[in-house]
């Protein structure tokens, strides 16, 4: 998960509303720094970071709702919807990764082998590597003693296929919503609400 951008320029003697606007504008820029990944459904980590940035902006607006314009209310609702859409997408990504691990899929990627090695303490995690699944869970899922038998494997393969289809649908819903917001210049709406 990407770290939150630091907030600078706050004045402890200024009205709360002024500082709230400074914080919200930083969170807005943070959110839009991930926009470049919206068109690629396979930037899993970056789309998750977009969700986290959306959550940070939403929570900022909610915390300071009393000192901000009423125009922030509908913005909060849109941010909540984006956050939910991206949360569902991330949940689906995690489920797909889990199913691939259970099936011993070759395309589960080297990062999971690395996570397994890290969990077993056999080597250090590569610098900067991000894990989608906790190493302890990876170790348990690739336990050779727990290999699924034929019927279980078939069920897991069907579930994986359904989850992949669901993920495509979830991504489509999110992307359409995102572009509806951009068509009405959602970023400008947020800035205008903060300046009101």
Give an account of the 3D structure:
It is a single chain. The protein is mostly helical and 196 residues long. The protein has a domain at 16-103 and 168-195. Helix content is 67%, strand content 0%. The protein has seven helices and no strands. It has helices spanning 16-32, 44-63, 72-103, 110-120, 135-141, 150-183, 186-195. α2 packs antiparallel against α3.
In short:
It is built from seven helices and no strands. It is an all-alpha fold and 196 residues long. The chain has a domain of 116 residues.
**What's the SSE pattern?**
HHHHHHH
The portion of residues forming beta strands comes to under 5%
Number of strands: 0
Total DSSP helices: 7
Q: Radius of gyration over alpha carbons?
A: 21 Å
Cα(first) to Cα(last) distance is: 32 Å
Mean pLDDT: 85
How does the major sheet shape up?
Answer: none
Shape: elongated
What ranges have pLDDT less than 50 throughout 5 or more consecutive residues?
A: 106-111, 114-120, 123-129
Structural class: mainly alpha
What's the helical proportion of residues? 55-70%
